[in-house]
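Appendix B. Raw example, untouched.
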Amino acid sequence: MEPEDREAVDQAVERALEYLQRTQQTAGAWVGENNQRSPAISALAVMAFLSAGHVPGEGKYGETVTKGVDWVLQQQHANGLIAPGGHQEMYHHGICTLMLAEVVGMTEGKQADEIRRKLVKAVEVILRAQRTSGQHKGGWRYTVAGNDGDISVTGWQIMALRAAKNLGCDVPVERIQMAVDYIKRCQDPSTGGFRYHPGAHLTIPCTGTSILALEICGKEYHRAPELLKAGSFLLRNPPQWGQAYFPYAIYYCSQATFQLGGQYWESYRAKLHESLFRNQSPNGAWQEGHLGPIYPTAMAVLALTVEYRYLPIYQRAEEQADRATEHDPK
């Protein structure tokens, strides 16, 4: 990153983090739709701080991060699920599990022990929720029980499993392969883009999600021809403020193109920065969609800080695979 570009990113990120700190509730949560406390959005806000290099208990944001992590931990049910009631429990659960897997290495003592215990239970829920038959075999959807799947929910579960596996959690290889096979069935060979689920419509966010998920699932997928074709699909459909699911799209597409590297990241980064710098509010937030400002603000920070590489999941695919191998029992 060029020095002047890094300075602009740093300034945008710092303003956003100050906004997130101001809007955290006393208990440690952040709110989403209808001003309701949200485990998923709280976990994303925590990851925004982590991605900028801020860890629990240290520096100006240390208490903010610690309180956020503690609140998410308190939302786990006895069965291991981290989610409120409703039909989108696996969105909350996958995002919260990913956050816990990312933060555990940045904590110590009782909090680290608690995170590890709850992370193991959370991983068991993800494995239990994976579909095992039918056209959605290998995927996940909104609820633990069911036989349907989609790329959006599946992406979060793969991110969480990959991060947990890097820590030594038990994630059977065959489960990752099932997920890989599901994602591959969603690709459109003519355009390179990926569908929401097999036979459904192509989307930009699902393409970014699929590239990233495959990239972090093994060295053999890094810059594979089908992923480079998918990357070209993203470059033909650059980030534009106001496009459908913009915060979700930039979160996954920034990571996807960063994993691909070279022209894919250089081109995407330029358009990403242009869009986000122009649309940041004076208070530091990004306002987009019906979920309130916290969600798009956290996602924008996570997209802007990909190059910082503070989050373990932001390492490139070959580094991810090397770390996972180190933890695999011989």
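End of appendix B.
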